[in-house]
Automatic annotation (TrEMBL):
This is Xaa-Pro aminopeptidase. InterPro entries: Creatin/AminoP/Spt16_N (IPR029149), Creatinase/aminopeptidase-like (IPR036005), Creatinase_N (IPR000587), Pept_M24 (IPR000994), Peptidase_M24B (IPR050659). PANTHER family: AMINOPEPTIDASE, AMINOPEPTIDASE YPDF. Gene3D superfamilies: Creatinase/methionine aminopeptidase superfamily, Creatinase/prolidase N-terminal domain. Transmembrane segments: none annotated. Pfam families: Creatinase_N, Peptidase_M24. The keyword Protease applies. Keywords: Aminopeptidase, Hydrolase, Protease.
Amino acid sequence: MNIAPGKNAVGNIPFDEARVDRLMEEAGIDVLLATSKHNTQYLLGGYKFIFFAAMDAIGHSRYLPIVVYEKGGPDHAAYIGNRMEGGEHQNNPFWTPTLHAACWGTLDAANLAVEHLQKIGKAGARIGIEPGFLPSDAYTLIRKALPDARPIDATGMLESMRAIKTDAELEKLRTASELITESMLATIAGAREGTTKSEIIERLRREETNRGIHFEYCLLTLGSSHNRAASPQAWKQGEVLSIDSGGNYHGYIGDLCRMGILGEPDAELEDLLAEVETVQQAAFSKVKAGILGGDMISHAEGVLKASKVAAYTDFFAHGMGLITHEAPFLMTNHPVTYEGTYAAKPLEKNMVLSVETTMLHPTRGFIKLEDTVAVTDTGYVMFGDRGRGWNRGATA
């Protein structure tokens, strides 16, 4: 399917066009070739093709969606997708004036992208690409076909584009967090003595799925162990449970951690979780539009350093959205490998953060809270804020 520019009016552009144009100008990019699932989804207003939602490979190649967007030229925008996406367009038309629902692999998609760039007069332009999400065969084809073009890494520009959430995005993140919290609390309440880690993880998968969440993962510990992988280990009376889960709602990620206990927590456990909560609250106290991201990090780390559990406890914060670690990037290589480039920048309204404090206690086990907060002008709003204390497992 090929809908030529000029024959259809530009649809409602689902992102802040002026902001994206400004970011492209700052990055020295004339035209974007977005090829990752998350950035094509963002630029298409939330659309992701269901057939390839959980896979990429097909036949001898893989699915490669491409959104072409020219700075200041939305009438030249195009979406290049799989042949089956023509039906998606018939039911819910894409906003881009040009649609090529014609591809089965990387090379036919890249060829169509080249043809479109030539057609709109951008064969020699500065082309923003995603190196981590552009297969080598497609990249090689584009470079040979457009020898005068200058490829520019658009990764940082696209990350900045997604950093400030719209109200609709915030609502999806809130819903994801709320439903994951509900699922974790139901899972803890349904587990009993003898329930294995594998059974608890499977219960959580079903709880999330039944609530309309796409289950991504569950990291689970029982007792004094710090091992979060699935196993036949069974929950025993008096033991702690930590349950850390990520799932997505319409593509937006919820990622939280809550604690469980089989029986009643003793004084030491109450005290240990309170230490974790103190660090979390220290971080929250510095979340506000205009405050440097690094100031929030250093304040929380300072409170942790003064804590009696500092030797075996870690603090971490990162951005959340369409992927689990995105802008704002606040810490360097801790633990995910990237630079904390936003530490020296002010937090902005509608940024979303995951804030987590993790204790690897030498005898009591893995004790952690992870929360999701959205930055506001006056502070923050927390998503999925229930169950932050000790949640009891089933007694019989």
